[in-house]
Amino acid sequence: MSGPNTGGIRLRRSRRAAPAIALFLLAPTVGELLLGNLAYTQLPFFLPILAPMYGGGALLIREVTRRAGRGPTTMLILGVAYGLVEEGLADQMLFNRYYAGHDEMGDTYIPVLGMGGWLTLGVLTMHAVWSTNVGIALVEAFVPDRAETPWLGRTGLSVTAVIFATGSALVAWGGYQDERFLAAPVQLLGTAAAIVALVIVAFRRPPASRLAGIAPKPWIVGVVAFVAGGAFSCTADLPGWWSAAAVAVVIAVTIIVVGRWSRQRNWSRAHRLALATGAVLTYAWMGFGMQPESGPKTTGDYVMNVVLASGTVALVVFAARRLHAFRPAASTAGERFEPAAQPPSG
Predict the structure, then answer these.
(1) Which of 5, 51, 193, 256 has the most neighbouring CB atoms within 10 Å?
(2) Is 52 exposed, middle or buried (0-12, 13-18, 19+ CB in 10 A)?
């Protein structure tokens, strides 16, 4: 028999789970739909398959990081590991030169590895930033009072891991049905070893020390992120190994600059949201020029681009307002480079 407070308990539980649900849905939306990889006619079939992997992966990264008392740097490293799981073990695009009928590796193909220079750097960066960490940063800004604590208990974390594993298996099965391609055993073993190494580095690396100086204002950080995102996207159009060299430079410079800013004493949650904003707006405008994998864009695809881009702006505004409203009540405006967080008891 239900007691008089059953409805209230259920409501509180649903509110506690709301950020996790939001991230689960936002990750595939940013990672695939906003970029325009899928045609709107493909959504009913592909979204239910992709959401468990994208959403489960992003949520798993966020939860294990916060439970370990760590922060954005750990999440970023785990985002690279996620990219290897998806593109190296699941759909195996990193090793399939003619994936989806196109020569994705071109002149940067490395025969001894069976991989492409730009493709490897570009795809892993896209997953580390856009498929996982952009969504995490946005949703954490939605709930600033819970940004540094876990959203799921042990049961929820276990369910998320099962969902992610199931989604990855579905993508692997679907990819094989479409491509009839299997990477060499040494490639798969090497990918698995790299994933394990990245996870170890993510959780064993010592916290970074603070630096002297003051980071730029959040809006400047956002503009830099937007410009860096645009430069990153343009490297794919360069000929031959110039593309791989250019993307490596863009990635390295961004890591150095942002890494230094994030260690300065005034770095705050607002700066992190600005980074995510610049990145997600890059995807929003890129989506209009991206051709879906299924063929040329249609009017329906452009309508979807407009709807998603408008929704992205609305989400960013909402996140900024939530963060701004929380700041006066917060004991500190910022987040330590690797903040401490206590895991829930349940």
Answers:
(1) 51
(2) buried
- C-alpha 121/C-alpha 119 separation (Å) is 6
pLDDT on residue 320: 94
How far is C-alpha 240 from the chain's CA centre? Answer: 27
State how far the Cα of 95 lies from the Cα of 188, in Å rounded to an integer: 9
> 182-230 pLDDT, tens per residue?
999 999 999 999 999 999 999 999 888 888 889 999 999 999 999 999 9
Asked if 163 and 54 count as a contact pair (C-beta separation under 8 A), the reply is no
CA 185 remoteness from chain centre: 28
Which residues have C-beta within 8 Å of that of residue 25, sequence separation ≥ 6?
51, 55
Calculate the alpha carbon distances from 110 to 106, 121, 195, 282 in Å: 10, 13, 21, 29
